[in-house]
Amino acid sequence: MCFGLAIRLRNPPLSSRFGESGSLAEFSCVLSPPCAWIYRQTRYSSRRIRKRVIFKQGDCNVIQGNVAKRRRRYLQDIFTTLVDIQWRWTLFVFACSFILSWLGFGALWYLIALSHGDIQAAGDESHKPCVTYIYGFTSAFLFSLETQHTIGYGNRYITEECPEGIFILALQSITGVFIQAFMVGIVFAKLSRPKKRAQTLLFSKNAVICHRDGMPCLLFRVGDMRKSHIIEAHVTAQIIRRKVTKEGEILPFYQQNMEVSCDGGDDRLMFIWPTIVVHKIDRDSPLYGLSAQDMLRDRFEIVVMLEGVVESTGMTTQARSSYLPSEILWGHRFESVVTFKRETGEYQVDYTTFNNTYEVDTPLCSARQLHEVKKELNKQNGVTEASSDTEESDTSSVDNESSRKNSLSNGYLRFTPVYANTNEHSGMNVTNGVVGDPMVLPPAIIASDVPTVSPGSERKKNFRKLSIKEPSMDSLC
Q: Which reaction(s) are listed as its catalytic activity (predicted)?
């Protein structure tokens, strides 16, 4: 089975094993020919290449089976059943409900005319019938049709000879109103279903992992094609994966929530243009221990849902999509889709670049490994971490204001000694992001040939501080 090896890496040791094109190694699954196909999976495909719970278009890949008294339960909620069934069955029920009611009441009118002797006395002007101009079942059926829909062509009408006929007339009028209201409500409900509104809500084809504000994040994009907005829109995400509990119980489809936010806020978004939804990979994230290599062989599914109120109808709608590990691009960012047109003074959204991404330098290790490296470097330099439990505290700063301004936060490390006399710092030799004599660090962080401070320079160091610089090292982990 192909588990989707589609992550692009920039690690030279890995690329040398699988082959490379320049410095970029592109992995593709060559285990079986179906893995090379473009994934176009139907709802009831007999050969599913990828096992997923939610299809990309939002349909659930779940079939209910062996339900006790299933038909009886469906008939108890006949309205929802008729709304959910396909259109051809709805139209069939619509036509049958009217035709059967016409035939049923037509038979009653025929029996009334037959019992009163109207059919036997046809043509006798001295006989006063219950319903005029009824000579058989066909004329009785026409009178039933005219009565139920108040057509009234003027020939057939009821008289006061038969009280039972007056009762049937009232009963058929009430029944016709109920049937019309019921069937029109079903058709209207099918036309205005929120599920149809969800077809114009778009999710990006791929999700990406990159650093944002010094923290690894999972990003995906959502958009709305219509001008009518989604009110109170909010996004939720869950990961479905296999889990083994402490007692040894195996949960094959364990669902875990993933905290998401939009542009630094909460899960609520102002949905006026395509928005990038962010999941921060911190200690509470289920992706905290996954590296780029782990992403290649792990099996999980991230289900994302967008809910909101349709501005036009006031009904609540929900759009769904999902991402497999093969659909998550490591070290990518989304391209911008919103531009400002000076000619018209409007903001234009270009959906041709909605799924486009570009590569950025991103550590290949997991967020856990990156945090451990930062923590170890802080410990070696005597820097105390902040008390916060989130990953944002990993880039802790000192109380010195000038040092705090110089610190960056993009997820990469360097050491910058802070001296008591700032004038002495201007003459220091800076190489590979290390000022002064290098500490004993992992070879992936500092090269072995890092030069030290020239002999004879005696400078007293107060403390060392962890700061960040723009990356030039892909083999961090």
A: K(+)(in) = K(+)(out)
Report how far residue 396's alpha carbon sits from residue 398's, in angstroms, rounded to the nearest whole number: 7
pLDDT tens sequence across 146-156: 999 988 888 88
By CB atoms closer than 10 A (0-12, 13-18, 19+), residue 306 is buried
Q: Render 76-133 in DSSP notation, one character per residue.
A: HTHHHHHHHS-HHHHHHHHHHHHHHHHHHHHHHHHHHHHHHTTTTTTT-TT---SBTT
State residue 398 phi and psi, 5-degree precision.
-95, 180
In terms of pTM, does the model score above 0.85? no
DSSP 8-state code for residue 200: G
In angstroms, rounded to a whole number, what is the distance separating the alpha carbons of residues 278 and 446? 32
338's enclosing H/E stretch is strand 338-341
Structure-model confidence comparison of residues 92 and 198, the more confident one: 92
Look up tokens 């709608």; give the residue.
Answer: 317
CA distances for 369 relative to 2, 373, 375, angstroms: 27, 6, 10
Q: Which domains does the chain have, with CATH numbers?
A: 83-192 (1.10.287.70), 197-371 (2.60.40.1400)
Contact 375, 394 (CB under 8 A): yes
Contact 404, 49 (CB under 8 A): no
* Cα dist from 410 to 184, 273, 362, 444, whole Å: 59, 27, 10, 18
Q: How far is CA 95 from CA 91, 99, 101, 228, 261, in A?
A: 6, 6, 10, 35, 49
- Which stretches within 24-77 are classed as H helix? 70-76
* Cβ–Cβ < 8 Å for 322, 302: yes
Q: What are 323's strand-pairing partners? A: 302
